Amino acid sequence: MIELMRELYPIPRSLTGDGVRQTLARISQEVPLEITEVPTGTQVFDWTVPREWNVDEAWIADADGNRVVDFAKSSLHLLGYSVPVRERLSLGELRERVFTHENPDWIPYRTSYYTENWGFCLSQRQLDSLADGDYEVCVGTRLEEGHLTYGEALIPGETQDEFLLSTYVCHPALCNDNLSGVVLLAELGRRLAERKLRYSYRLLFSPGTIGPLCWLSRNPDAVGRIRHGLVASCVGDPGGMTYKRSRGGEAEIDRAVEVVLRDSGREHAILDWFPYGGDERQFNSPGFDLPVGALSRSPADTFPGYHSSGDDFDLVAAEWLEDSLETYLAVIDAVERNRTYVNASPYGEPQLGKRGLYRSVGGGSPQEAALLWTLSLADGTLDLIGIAERSALPFAAIREAADRLLEHDLLAPA
Ligand code: ZN
Are residues 332 and 357 located together in one domain of the fold? Predict the structure, then answer.
């Protein structure tokens, strides 16, 4: 995942343009994607697909012609969606067009998608080092009729019911807030493709906000098949896992994530729904009302370096990506294995000893506790996640107990 991140980092991504296409092409080598191009001007619900934006060059040169700021060195240097400009400015005039970050060493990440503007992003130190005098500014961008590009993969399972995994592909050179979610989903796609699955898994890689809206507007049938969903972002930093519940707050995905995080025994945070944040806002809007939560480590804008060049390879690490991947796989396992059963011998406690289900005389082992809790609560109203919640036993223990009871015909599907 870290290696893939290093490959994707220099590609100049934005809401639209060739950087998104290159990114999706590279992801396709991990998990084959179906690419959709939505033309500029297309109406999607209350939004309109903007013009496509591409950058040929962008730089600031001093009076001697030295390029003191260059997009070729960092795609963060240009205000996203800057309109084309070529002019000479005094340092004072140039300052009006420059964005800086409160940390003097970091280049901020700024965009102006829906208002025409242009500008440059510099570290405060870089700005302070510019001498008085005239500067030549070149914003060699093309803002033209084109397309918005997104990619998706459907990994089929036994049923057509879908588990949606979504991330955004619109941020330039930023590691945690964007690339971590991209590489996590690519790796999940590779892993899921090797598995026998109950649900079908749809991976969506699209530019933020308008990307999911484009997908939602074009896929009403698939939307109707979504049973669970997660939006992946900021999964590479050292913070504990953070889960933001779906709008309803009690969906199976909410309960699955919460039981997995509880079972991890590690510090984590559960947040109730709130109507700002990432693409979960679109999936949970009342018209769609999909059970989609957001699973991250430190949420966006809570970690140092957020939306700046400080969100780099010093912030993220392979071990945190791996830990996030394991968490996602555990959630998928919980949802895959979750079922509602009834006790098939409900009149009195079935005699476990004669079936060899008591491992030792006297009992009291965790396995026995899981058997007894499962028999006691399997009345057709609680699913296995519910039994894990109520018993305070790990989901894995309850799942194993259910498997053993099924082998002995002591449980039956509700
Ligand atoms: Zn962001």
Answer: no
Q: How far is the CA of 341 from the centre of ligand 1 (A)?
A: 43
Identify the domain boundary among 144, 168, 186. Answer: 144
Say how many CA atoms lie within 13 Å of 372 toward its Cβ. 13
Look at the chain and report how many structural domains it folds into: 3
Strands (E), 249-392: 268-271, 292-296, 340-343, 379-383
> The domain containing residue 330 runs over which residues?
2-45+147-337
CA of 135 to the centre of ligand 1 (A): 31
How many CB atoms are located within 10 Å of the residue 242 CB? 19
Q: How far is the CA of 173 from the centre of ligand 1 (A)?
A: 11
pLDDT at position 360 is 53
C-alpha span between 136 and 120 (Å, rounded): 13
208: CA distance to ligand 1 center in Å?
9
Residue 377 pLDDT: 98
Write the pLDDT tens digit of every residue in 174-219: 999 999 999 999 999 999 999 999 999 999 999 999 999 999 999 9
- Are 315 and 288 part of one and the same domain? yes
Ligand 1 centroid to Cα of residue 143, in Å, is 22
> What spacing in Å lies between the alpha carbon of 165 and ligand 1's midpoint?
18
Strands annotated E in 253-374: 268-271, 292-296, 340-343
Residue 363 CA to ligand 1 centre (angstroms): 53
pLDDT at 391 over 80: yes
Residue 15 CA, ligand 1 centroid: distance in Å: 12
* C-alpha to C-alpha distance for 102 and 14, rounded to whole angstroms: 24
Mean pLDDT, rounded, of the chain? 96
- Same domain assignment for residues 226 and 329: yes
Tell me, yes or no, whether 222 and 320 share the same domain: yes
DSSP count for the chain of H helices, then E strands: 13, 19
Distance 300 CA to ligand 1 centre (A): 7
As a whole-number percent, the residues of the chain with pLDDT over 70 amount to 99
- Judged by average pLDDT, the poorest of 147-161, 184-198, 362-376, 382-396 is 362-376
Q: State the first-to-last Cα distance of the chain, in angstroms, to the nearest integer.
A: 41
Provide the CATH number for the domain around residue 379: 1.10.10.10
In CATH, what number is assigned to the domain containing residue 228?
3.40.630.10
